[in-house]
Amino acid sequence: MTPALETNLVNVNLVPEGGGPPYSLFAAWRAQDPVHWNPPPPPGTYRPLQPGMDLHKGFWVLTRYKDVSEVSRDAELFTTHMEGMMVFDYEPAALEQQRAGIMCMRPKTHMQVKQIVVPPFMPRSLDAFAPEIARVAQDIVDDVIELGQCEFVFDVASKLPVYTFCKLTGIPDRDREKIFKLGNKAADFETAPDPEGPAKARLLAYSMNLVKEKKASPDKSLMSALVHGQVDGDRLSDEQLGMFFFIISVAGHETTRGTAAHFIRLMNEHRDQYELLLSDIDGHLPNAIEEVLRFAPPVLNFRRTVAKDTVVGGHQFRAGDKIYMSYPAANRDPDVFADPDRFDITRKNANRHLSFGVGPHVCLGARLARLQLFELLKAIITRMPDIRMTAEPAYLRSIIFNAIINMPVEFTSGRRMGN
Prior knowledge:
Blueprint: H1 14-18, H2 23-32, E1 35-38, E2 53-54, E3 59-62, H3 65-73, E4 78-79, E5 89-90, H4 92-100, H5 107-117, H6 123-145, E6 149-151, H7 152-157, H8 159-169, H9 176-187, H10 199-216, H11 222-228, E7 230-231, E8 234-235, H12 238-269, H13 271-279, H14 281-295, E9 301-306, E10 310-312, E11 315-317, E12 322-326, H15 327-330, H16 366-383, E13 388-389, E14 394-395, E15 404-406, E16 408-410
């Protein structure tokens, strides 16, 4: 059923009730009202569980690829620093905390910090890391293959990105399960209260202990590089270090986990495409991953604030306007992607999707995410080729993530590697 044209995007039930983002709504807006005004929710109808956050301002929704791309590429005119990168409205203390994160720093500082953290994500470093990622992917399949069934999201999809995050940041193996649980809870901050308190606060507290360890004993980890790196001759503050840790602890596993789950879902729903994939896994898998990212982006939106009066897509924006960049809408723009609602793993321009962003804030870990997805999905479909869903997937109640949180699957049981 197509949502009504006046649908408000701050409804946390929109994605679960529709079995994914409201693509038909975005298509209608793109055709009739491509820069669409989304009014603020009625008072008290949206209650984020993070302190200092609310939603009391309306925003402009961009649905065309060219408009989302244009806004993404100009970090000075369309800023994350002014009011944050997410659609929420922050109280002053919470906004200052957001500004400490790499995504919301001033453009010059953002680029300087990025230079400190980029080496582990470069091709040479990833090539060296690839055998370890492939080994862990096989171990994950080993853990379930004899059972003939599992809950895919947390038994399979979640494990590799969390392992990778812990290795990159220098988290001891003994703490991996703790970080796994906290990262998942932090991603579900919109609707699921935690009796132990906000997961974000606990992740930040953990990061401070990690920072102390890296200050005392430098190593080759990403957190150590940040702790000992300098920007304009100064070390990063503890708050900046903590926010970096928090952002990648959520984004680094939420997006990869989500894409792996959507991949299996879509291959179940489009059996002709799955049969094509099985006919040449190495040949088709890289582009199939890109098409899944285009067709079912794991992140629904990011926000920018207009720094000064300007025009985008024929619309006059005023300084202070809030912009919602819709990735599901942009990724199905027929001006860029022919027959955009068709799932096609051979699509020649699938990799033009905006699911990892574009411009100064393009996802730092995009190459790593692609590597993890390739190795994990190759292990799954090679060793469990008849994997199939046994129930409809359950979606996270969120206005930020297009995330599956439960997806039972079954497959012909097999043997562990080496057995």
